[in-house]
Design brief:
Length: about 250
Amino acid sequence: MKGKSDQLMNSKEDGPLRERATARGTTKAVIGRMVAAGCGLAIHVYLARALLPELYGVLAVVTSVISWWEWSGISLLSASTVHFVARAADNWKQVAGTAVQTALICSLLLAAGSILAAPVIAGALGDPRLTGYLWLFTIDLAAYPLFHVFAQVSRGRRRYGRWAGALIIYWVAKAILVCGLVALGLSVKGAIMGSIGASVVGLIFAWWWSGVELPRAGFPVRTLLLFGLPMMGSMVVGRLMENMDLWCVKALL
């Protein structure tokens, strides 16, 4: 009876602590998203003025294609990484190791597919310039998915401050690098290189804060993938519908 009463008292004491932890985590997540939104807005306002309509439109098309490509792969592991890391408790490193290794393989496959598909996409959209831009942007496919997975590990461990910190650093670095390189006269290529640099910076900090050392797989890959497949299907179709109007306008004009 004493053991049960002690557990009951502990659960009552833990309630307010959990509520405060949830409130702090929510606040940190909101701050991270707000900074990301602010940086994203600043980037678009600056690029719209610096690149003028034609080149800004070209960059928008290239970015939307790569973003759709990236998130098709990221969504496969995003929710499953958070879910299984949170459930694993002390064994979270096994799940994280499997997620990171799987993300690396997916990144390489996405990059290879992007390189092969770039000329076809450029031809379908009626702009041969897109091939070179898509090939350059392919480098981002090797960094951004890994950055995202490491950040999701921090979310799964309920380290929301670290997750928000990695997100803020990524977006601040992106604003500085993209706007800075475009200001130096590198135009669309500068914007793409700035995005790649931001992914590398974000990856470094997200890896550092995630607590994952040399990732070692110790969790079934199949379990992660089966959990993530519905999210991947939803993301692929959803982002396709979001970008379809932009791609159609580019192809028609």
